[in-house]
Amino acid sequence: MTLQHSWNPPALAVLFLLVLVLSAEGSQTVGRWRVGGECACLLHKSIRLSRLMAKQAQDLLSTYMSSQGDFSETFCKLPVKEVPRAEITGYGTVVRLRNIHTTLGLFLQHITVVMEEQENLQDAENPLLEVLLDAQAHITNMATSVSRILQTLQPNEPPEVAGPAHASSPARNIFQQKIYGCAVLTNHRDFLSHVLQELKNLKFKGHTCVSRRERSFRGAEHRTS
């Protein structure tokens, strides 16, 4: 005996809508997995780079101090107002990542000035100059990585734009240049230490690579389950 089902037009319409909804949800799920995976990969690479940069920043400061002659430890303790701060500010993942990106740009500007001043003070063979160049390249790479993470988290937002590579600098005598350079590199070292810790903390949060819209979706999904 053969059973035959007759589908009336309203039932077919409901079935068609159900198929569309399921297809849309499936596409959104795949998209969320892709975005989350991409962000996690970027975060992992950024952590590795920040770990390298934090170590090299300490080596850079030591190399700088050894190149400045006597009393370097003394003048390295003197404060300088125009140097970027080492702290990461703001509340929330996106805001703090933006602050990291902005501060990286500031340090790039100031380290460029330090580089120019040290080129006038040091021999061309001094290893300090090469280490300063490496620091500039690493900062640029880290800023790019953070910008890509932000684009993954908020694809509809305009990308973070790096500031000018050079900061306006007042005229300083040799002693002031040494103080300024040490202050920049000290805060640069401390800032990168904070960046490494910040990225590691993000890695262990369940909502690390999830946008605000996706977190809202998950919260609603959890409440209805």
Automatic annotation (TrEMBL):
Subcellular location: Cytoplasm; Secreted
Gene3D superfamilies attached to this UniProt entry: 1.20.1250.10
GO biological process terms, semicolon-separated: cell differentiation; ciliary neurotrophic factor-mediated signaling pathway; immune response; negative regulation of neuron apoptotic process; nervous system development
Key words of the record: Cytokine, Cytoplasm, Developmental protein, Differentiation, Growth factor, Neurogenesis, Secreted, Signal
Signal peptide residues on this chain, from the entry's feature table: 1-26
Annotated GO CC locations: cytoplasm; extracellular space
GO molecular-function terms, A-Z: ciliary neurotrophic factor receptor binding; cytokine activity; growth factor activity
Top-level lineage group: Eukaryota
Database matches in SUPFAM superfamilies: 4-helical cytokines
InterPro entries from the UniProt entry: 4_helix_cytokine-like_core (IPR009079), Ciliary_neurotrophic_fac_CNTF (IPR000151), Leukemia_IF/oncostatin (IPR001581)
Job description of the protein: CNTF is a survival factor for various neuronal cell types. Seems to prevent the degeneration of motor axons after axotomy.
Protein family membership: Belongs to the CNTF family.
Name recorded for this polypeptide: Ciliary neurotrophic factor
Organism, as annotated: Synaphobranchus kaupii (Kaup's arrowtooth eel)
